[in-house]
Amino acid sequence: MLRYCFYCILLLLLFSYSSISFCATGNPSFSLHKLGASSPQSKTLLVIGGIQGDEPGGFHAASLLTTQYTITNGTVWIVPNLNFPSIIKRSRGVYGDLNRKFATINENDPEYQLVERIKSIIINEDVDVVLNLHDGSGFYREDYHDSEYGPHRWGQSVIIDQENINVNNFGDLGEIAREVTANVNSIIGDDHFAYRVKNTRTAEGDEEMAKTLTFFAINQGKPAFGVEASKNLSKSERVFYHLLVLENFMKRMGITFHRNFELTAANINKVIIENRNIALYDNRIFMDMQDIRNQLNFFPLEQNSNIDFWTKDPLITVVEESSSFDIYHGNERITTLIPQYFDYDTKPPQISMEVDGCLKNVRMGSIVKVANTFKIITPNGYRANAIGFSRQGEDNEAGLTIEKKDFSSRYSVNQGGSIFRIEFYKTADQKNDDKFAGMVLINFEDASHHIAELQADVVSANTSDDSQGR
Ligand SMILES: [Zn+2]
Q1: Model confidence band, residue 16 (pLDDT cutoffs 50, 70, 90)
Q2: Is 36 inside any structural domain?
Q3: Is pLDDT of 188 > 90?
Q4: CA of residue 51 to ligand 1 center, whole Å
Q5: What average pLDDT does the structure give for the chain?
C-alpha cells in the first residue's frame, strides 16, 4: 500500500520567484534593482553594467551583485543590463557607442529614451556615488611598456574624470579612487593584476570622454567612477576583479553586505551558471537551464498570447524571432524554443506521482528527482505525455511505471540526457482541442559530470584593439 512519506514531500524541489515579470520582445529594456534599505545616515551606490554589450565582466558582476548579495546597511541600486540589445548581439553598441551619447543626443536616436531614463536615475537625489563597469583592453600603466601595457590601455583601472568635484559627500574622487585601489591591491597581491587610478582630465579637452556617462554624472554633482577589468583576462577573472572593486567601494561608503558565495575566480562560473533558470506562465513551466540543449522542439506555448516569463537573473531574457524564441543569458544564446501553440487550461490540475515507491503531490513547474522509477497519477479528464517515451503509447503515459531506459535520450531537456519533460493536457473530444495544463521535469540523477565540463572557463576571444577605451 502506498503512503505519502513526509521526507519525500520535503524533497520536492520548489522554486519561488521575486516579482518581476517580462514579455518577450525583440528589444528588451534595462532593469533597475534596489537592494537594502535606506536610513537617514546611510548612503546609496548606483552600479551600472552593460553600457557596452561586449563587456561581460562588468555586466555579469552587476548581475551577481543583484542576485547573490544581501545589503545589510545602506542601499545599492543596480542596472546590470543597460544596453540589453547590444548584450544579446555581443556588440559594443548596435546603435553606436552608448557611452558617447551623454553630452548630446538626437531625439530620433533609437537610444534616446534609454539615455533619458538612465540620466533620471543617475540624478535621483538618493544616489550618492555612481560606478560604471567596463571591460577594457590591455592593462593601464602610467608609463609605456609595450602595446598591451601603458597609458593608452584601460584594463585594471579605476577611472576619474578629474581629481575632485565640489559636493558634500565623496567629492574627492582621486583620493577615494586611490584608497579603494590600494585596498583592492592589498588583496590581489600580484602587481600584474593590480589596479591603477587613471585620470582622463576630461574637462581639460578630452572630447571623447566628455560624451560619457561618468562625465555627465559629475557635472550633475554626482561622484562617478569608471571601473575597468582587463579584456585580456577570462570572463570569470574579470567578474572576480569587478566584485573586489565593488565591495571596496561599498566599504568606503559604509555599505555593509553579505555575499552568498566565496569570492574566488574559480567559483564565479559555477555561481553564474547556477542562476540559469526560467519560469514561464506563472510557473506552469520551470526550466533549469544549466545544461540545456541548444534547441527544444514542440515546446507548448500559449496560443494568441505573449510569452510571459520570470527569471531571477536579470541577464536572462527571451527574444522573439520569426518562428521561434531564443533564450539568452548575457551574450550567450543558451537555447531556442520551437513552439507548438495550445490553448491553456484555466487552472492547473492536482496531480501526484509514485516516485521510487513513494507517493508525492507534484505541482506544475517542479523538478522531480527519480532514482529508478516513477508513475504518474492524473485526475479524470487529463493525460500525461512523457516526451521521448519510446514504448508503445497513445500520448498518455499516466498509470505506467516508467524508468530512464524507456526514454529516447535525444528527447532530454539537458545535454547530459537525464532530464525529461512530462506535459499535462486536459483532454477534449478532438485531440487537437486538448488544452495544455503544465509541465513537470523528471530528473534521473546525475548529470553533474556534464555540468562540470560546461563550467570549464573559456578565455574570451574578444581582445580586439579598441584603445579608444570605455
Ligand atoms: Zn567599456
Answers
A1: very low
A2: yes
A3: yes
A4: 7
A5: 90
| Overall domain count for the chain | 2
Q: Domain residues for 47?
A: 31-272
For cell 590600494, name the residue: 182
| pLDDT value at residue 275 | 85
Give the pLDDT band (50/70/90) at residue 461: very low
Question: Of 316, 282, 288, which is closest to residue 302 (Cα–Cα)?
Answer: 282
Report the candidate in 154, 153, 171 with the shortest Cα–Cα distance to residue 217: 171
Whether the bond into 446 is cis, omega within 30 of 0: yes
467 within a domain of the structure (yes/no): no
Distance 88 CA to ligand 1 centre (A): 16
Q: Assess contact for 447 and 419: CB atoms under 8 A.
A: yes
Residue 17 confidence (pLDDT) above 50: no
The CB density around residue 22, as the number of other CB atoms within 10 Å, is 18
Q: Is 326 helix (H, G, I), strand (E, B) or coil?
A: strand
What phi and psi values does residue 193 have, to the nearest 5 degrees?
-100, 5
Mean pLDDT of 296-313: 94
Residue 216 lies in a domain: yes
Distance 251 CA to ligand 1 centre (A): 24
Residue 86 shares a structural domain with residue 163 = yes
pLDDT digits (tens, 9 = 90+) for 222-276: 999 999 999 999 999 999 999 999 999 999 999 999 999 999 999 999 999 998 9
The amino acid at 111: E
Interval between CA 89 and ligand 1 midpoint (Å): 15
- pTM score: 0.89
User: Do 272 and 57 contact (CB within 8 A), yes or no?
Assistant: no
Position 366 in a domain:
yes
138: left (phi over 0), alpha (psi -120 to 50) or beta: left
Please tell me the distance between residue 298's alpha carbon and the centre of ligand 1 in angstroms. 40
Do the beta carbons of residue 164 and residue 174 sit within 8 Å?
yes
CA 470 to centroid of ligand 1, rounded, Å: 4
Residue 469 CA to ligand 1 center (angstroms) comes to: 6
For cell 542601499, the residue is 75
DSSP state of 29: P
Rounded distance from Cα 237 to ligand 1 centre (Å): 16
Residue position matching grid coordinates 530620433: 108
φ, ψ of residue 179 to 5 degrees: the values are: -65, -45
Average pLDDT over residues 345-349: 90
DSSP secondary structure letter of residue 146: B
Region of 221 on the Ramachandran plot (φ > 0 left; ψ -120 to 50 alpha; else beta): left
Cβ-contact 346, 284 below 8 angstroms:
no
Give every strand in the sheet of 295-302, ordered side by side: 295-302, 332-342, 325-329, 316-320
Which three three-digit cell numbers place residue 20? 518581476
pLDDT at 194 over 90: yes
**Centroid of ligand 1 to alpha carbon of 211 (angstroms):** 13
